[in-house]
Design goal:
The structure holds 2 protein chains of 2 kinds. By secondary structure, chain A is mainly beta. Chain A has one helix spanning 2-11; strands at 25-34, 37-51, 58-65, 68-75, 81-88. The relative contact order of chain A is 0.24. Chain B is mainly beta. Chain B has 2 domains: 3-114 and 168-203, Elongation Factor Tu (Ef-tu), domain 3; 116-164, no CATH class. Helix content of chain B is 9%, strand content 40%. Chain B has helices at residues 40-43, 62-70, 119-123; strands spanning 3-15, 21-29, 32-38, 47-54, 76-82, 93-94, 104-110, 115-117, 162-164, 168-180, 185-189, 199-203. In chain B, the strands form 3 sheets. A 6-stranded antiparallel barrel of chain B has the order 1-2-11-10-7-12. In chain B, strands 5-4-3-6 form a 4-stranded antiparallel beta sheet. The relative contact order of chain B is 0.27. Classes of the chains: A mainly beta, B mainly beta. Chains A and B meet through helix 1 of A and strand 1 and strand 2 of B.
């Protein structure tokens, strides 16, 4: 198993992304191919899970778009990922936030993590 | 049919230049040692015998020790004959460098044993399809296996249940995605027969 991980990480070099976890609000900018043209599109939402490890790692972001929930799964090693910006760090108590799927509006909010600077 | 002996490490995926995520198998192949050169004059046909992976001397019969001593190498676990490898001498090593990225290879291995299986898994029979119309427990049964008083027997080779898997299987035309020569590794697109750690023959 370790040899598979070692070689697959060698095959798929993951770029350096900022650290983020479930509950954070992030903006992902990714490339879209239309015919021969390439353009950038961004997707902003809440990270509801990060799964797997190494070159297979993916994350799921959820956002509300016109009253319906939209989820997108991105592989972290995907060559189409252009940029990841962490907008807000959320204070959550679990790593999989699937309960957000049943909630809308006020109850679907996530508290912002309070960060204290060390003196 | 030049080639090399290898070992299946496992499967992973790799992104192609177009951004497609391709399934691939990691094979650790070689370095193999030429343990015998068979010639037309002596053996009646021409071939090269390769050995792969060391084994302990105490686990090797004396006769085989003598065979390996001729090639001046340590005892090898897996020995396979290849045709079409030219310009090698006894004791030379054969590595993955003979493969180029993008070329197509065949991979031979022993498929995973499945035990005694019915005709649906073993021969791809359709099964009955539904549980109603009096099927009770006949959903995966083979059905009729022949006619009645003529021929009054079941034809040889009739497809029935039985031991499945564990056969020699060749996967043909697998594309070589990458060759990592310092680690003796070939990455081929798609799957190859057998379990992890089983021996494979990679043929050109």
């Amino acid at each position: 198993m370790d040899r598979i991980k070692e070689i697959s990480s060698e095959l798929n070099e993951t770029k350096q992304w900022p650290s983020f976890s479930s509950g954070d609000t992030i903006t992902v900018t990714y490339k879209i191919k239309e015919g021969n043209k390439e353009r950038l599109q961004s997707f902003q939402g809440t990270v509801i899970q990060r799964r797997s490890s190494g070159s297979n790692e993916t994350f799921t972001i959820r956002k509300m778009s016109g009253g319906t929930g939209v989820e997108r799964i991105f592989p972290l090693a995907s060559p189409f990922l252009e940029k990841i910006v962490v907008n807000k760090e959320g204070a959550v108590r679990r790593s999989r936030l699937f309960y957000l799927r049943e909630r809308t509006g006020k109850s679907a909010r996530i508290k912002e993590k309070k960060t204290f600077s060390k003196k | 049919m030049a080639g090399i002996i290898g070992k299946k490490i496992g499967m992973t995926s790799v992104y192609s230049a177009e951004g497609k995520n391709l399934p691939c198998t990691i094979i650790e192949a070689g370095p193999c040692v030429v343990t015998q050169i068979k010639t037309q004059e002596k053996d009646g046909y021409e071939s090269i015998q390769l050995g792969f992976e060391d084994k302990k001397e105490k686990n090797t019969p004396k006769a085989m020790l003598g065979h390996f001593a001729k090639a001046k190498t340590s005892p090898k676990r897996k020995i396979v004959e290849f045709h079409g490898i030219n310009d090698v001498n006894l004791g030379d090593s054969v590595t993955v460098d003979q493969f180029q990225e993008g070329e197509f290879v065949d991979v031979v291995g022993t498929s995973k044993g499945k035990g005694f299986q019915g005709v649906v898994k073993r021969h791809g029979f359709g099964g009955v399809g539904q549980a109603t119309h009096g099927q009770h427990n006949r959903m995966r049964a083979p059905g009729s296996i022949g006619a009645a008083s003529y021929p009054a027997r079941v034809f040889k080779g009739m497809k029935m249940g039985g031991r499945t898997g564990g056969d020699r299987v060749k996967s043909i035309n697998l594309q070589v995605l990458k060759v990592i020569s310092d680690k003796n590794i070939i990455i081929v697109k798609g799957s190859v027969p057998g379990s992890k750690g089983s021996y494979l023959i990679v043929e050109k």
